[in-house]
Specification:
125 residues, alpha+beta, 4-stranded antiparallel sheet, 4 strands, 24% strand, globular
């Protein structure tokens, strides 16, 4: 399994039903990465391991959200959803965080994204 294969499967799997609920109104086919960062980071972690990284999203110097991405086992940082942010949004900081072990607010979105990615990867062979 390659990083490139996982990224392609993820990009083909994003939709409003895999988006964080607070971002659904901003999700569009023109910005498919919007609201996908947490679920995407966990799916990458499922397939490639490493650690989860979280930063803060700031607008006008004020924190408005969190942003998630990955640090692979070799130390490479992978953030395929950074493109979701406009010029007025800035990601600051980066801290490795433990993978959630209990229920989260994004369980339904994660389940849909994980299943779609697994199906696409299986078809890629």
């Amino acid at each position: 399994m390659t990083l490139e294969a996982v990224i392609l499967a993820l990009r083909e799997s994003w939709g409003p039903d895999t988006c964080a609920p607070e971002d659904v109104d901003d999700w569009t086919p023109d910005n498919p990465a919007r609201g996908q960062c947490a679920t995407t980071a966990v799916v990458i972690h499922d397939h490639l391991g490493g650690s989860l990284v979280r930063g803060e999203v700031h607008v006008d110097g004020r924190q408005v959200d969190f942003h998630w991405w990955n640090r692979l086992p070799d130390g490479e940082q992978v953030d395929i959803t950074i493109e979701q942010f406009g010029p007025h949004e800035r990601v600051v900081g980066a801290v490795d965080v433990a993978r959630p072990t209990g229920p989260t607010r994004l369980d339904a979105q994660y389940a849909v994204l994980s299943d779609r990615v697994a199906a696409r990867l299986a078809r890629q062979g």
